[in-house]
Amino acid sequence: MMLYDCSTAPSPRRVRIFLAEKGLTLPTVQVDLRGGEQFTPAFRAMNPGCTVPVLALDSGAAISDIIAICRYIEELHPEPALMGRDAEERALIECWVRRIEWDGIYAIQEAFRNSMPGLEHRALPGPLPLEQIPALAERGRLRARHFLAWLDTRLADHAFVGGAAFTIADISAMVTVDFAARAKLDPPEHLRHLRRWHQDVSSRPSAKA
Ligand SMILES: N[C@@H](CCC(=O)N[C@@H](CS)C(=O)NCC(=O)O)C(=O)O
After folding, report:
1. Which of the listed residues 38, 39, 51, 97 should we mutate to test ligand 1's pocket, taking the one with most ligand atoms within 8 A of CB?
2. How far is Cα 28 from Cα 184, in angstroms, rounded to an integer?
């Protein structure tokens, strides 16, 4: 097994934290995204989507989606359970993760990639060179603020995003909040439940992964 990673990118960090929570380390290759290594023929042959993370299996298959990688790891190493312990928990945690991705990560990505110098022709990850659209950056900021306020409400009466236990929903949300800070979208002071939870999850050793 080989994990294709990039230590500065938020997406593979979700997998690294997941592995750290399981107490696992995998052989890892760093992909130089700034240098365009994701577009080389060798990388494209493995993942035509030109993104990391990718988990290359000994069978020759390559899993190129964060949640699919985590699901695979969870099946091989069920403890500690990070994706739910029964059908209801698994379904609900999947709901949270999808919501965090659609309303959080994609909103922040919209804000970040449509405004950052250096990403002028890279407004979305993937093989297509896409131009930045400033109005999408503005829309992304609006959506991201709405998402952070929603997350605060959710955390007002739950220790963790999914409920009483730390799960992949917390990993996804923590990486999202840290990514938001890079896009100058830090959660405002008054979102105190979000700030309490963020301090909590950031103090776990896995957060350094
Ligand atoms: N489909 C992937 C997307 C992951 C993704 O967007 N990765 C970014 C890094 S955070 C990437 O590889 N970007 C390459 C680029 O910007 O060219 C997943 O969710 O697992």
Report:
1. 51
2. 30
CATH 1.20.1050.10 occupies which residues in the chain?
A: 87-208
CATH for 2-76 is 3.40.30.10
Question: 101 CA distance to ligand 1 centroid (A)?
Answer: 12
Ligand 1 centroid, distance to 8 Cα (angstroms): 12
Whether 140 contacts 111, CB under 8 Å: yes
| Residues carrying CATH 3.40.30.10, the chain | 2-76
pLDDT in tens, 31-85: 999 999 999 999 999 999 999 999 999 999 999 999 999 999 999 999 999 999 9
CATH of domain 87-208: 1.20.1050.10
CA–centroid distance, 64 to ligand 1, in Å, is 9
* Lookup result for tokens 């503005």: 138
For position 57, what pLDDT does the model report?
98
